[in-house]
C-alpha cells in the first residue's frame, strides 16, 4: 500500500556540506529565509530569496524533482492565492506572495531532506529541555512531533490509494467511496499506534 511507503522520512542520504552542517545552522537558514520573505515584500526581493534557496538545494546535491513535488501537491492552492492577490492588488504582488511561499517551503524541505528524523527529534528535545522547569516534558513533546511526522504522510498516502482504487472501480466522484475507507484506515492506524505505545508503557504514562 502506497500509504505505508510514506512512513519513511523525506531524508535523502548524502555527504554534502549541507548534510554535514550542524542542525542549528540549518535551522538558522530556515529562519533566515522566513525573515527575509517577511521583511522583503516586493516580488523581486522574494524572487531572489527563492532563487537562493533553489541554488542551495542544487548545491547540496538533492534531486531536482523535489523542487517539482510541492508544485504538484499545492498547485491549486497557489492558483487560488495568485488569483486572489491579483484581484485585490496586482499581478506583481501576487507573484511576490507565490515566490515567498515557495521559498519557505523549499527552505523547510532543505532541513528535512538533509537531516534524519531522529536527529531532528533530538534537536527538539534539546531545545525544549530548558522548559522542563515549567513542567514541560521534552521526550513526550518529541514523541508527539514524531508521531505527527509519520501520521500525516501515512494518511495522505492512504487517501491517494483509496482515490486510485475508487477511480479503478468507476467511483472516482463518489465521496462515500473515498471518505469511508479513509476514515476506517485512519481509525485502524490510530488504534495500532496506541497499542504500540501502550506496549512500551507510554500509554500508561500518559494516563498518570
TrEMBL record:
It is found in: Membrane. It comes from the Bacteria. Keywords: Membrane, Transmembrane, Transmembrane helix. The keyword rRNA-binding does not apply. It is a multi-pass membrane protein. The chain crosses the membrane at residues 21-41, 47-64, 93-111. It holds the Pfam family CbiQ. This is Energy-coupling factor transporter transmembrane protein EcfT. It comes from Arthrobacter mangrovi.
